[in-house]
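Q: Study each token:
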Amino acid sequence: MVEPDDGCCGDDSCGDGHTKQSPAPRTPVLHCADALRAAGARVETVVACSDAEVDGVLARLDGPPRADGLTWPDPDGKTRLVVAVTGDGQLRHVLRRMVRRYAPPPSKRPEDLVTGRTVPDLPAVAVLPLDAAAKDLAGQLGLPRQPAEVAAAVLGDGVRRLDLLRHDGGSVTLDGVLVGGADGDGRPAQWLGRVEVDDLLLTDGADPLLAVAVANAAGVARAGGLPLLNSADPADGVIEVAVAVPVTHKPMFGRARLRIEVRRARGRAVSVTPRDAEVPLVDDSVAGSLARKRSWWIEPGAWAVYTG
């Protein structure tokens, strides 16, 4: 059972050089561990304060040595992983390290790698939300939230495979990305950018934009009350994309009116190229910014969760 520490693994900025004294596991983690032990499981808890500590836990999911020298997950392994998180960013961080561990370099793509993917089937994880009332991906997926329920899920056979978004910045997205920010008064700030989904051009960079949603699930379905996406499904093998464009309509009589046009598309890959110097974004609840072209692509069924 691993609990990524808030001070390090809530985003992608922490590195192997980050060290600090590990705090004690939180109460839900202890309750989950007690429930697992009561069911006869052998349990170890790790509060991970660095990438190296996360990687050390993930190494226990490795399969036997391969002839091609690749590090590969063990499909028949008995070790099961519970990730205790305060938000989606921490879960994403663990999956990001998992991808870095198991994704083979393009020059060593093995024959047993799933067609249309760059990573093998990643080991399933059980998610233990430390805030039982949080609005998060576990809630969207209907996963168990109480420690005893999570323990029962990880001991069961119910597994749901889900899509994963990778991007050319080296990280992953589990839920979705919302690109765009607000001005000093809290109103959406306009920016310029080019957005392409597969071979479809949603905007060429000339239109002012309010928001762009790149979604695997439904967490970025709305922006400031504006509906962006209708049917994001984390297991349908496609990326949902929406672009919000302010359009001024000038009738023959009366005043000009501003309306928001939402353009939507679905595909296997999407690129967003900002024309502005830097555009705010939120990726799996982690704030950041976009200063150059970024491309996301779908990895169908690459990761999995225990469902009970």
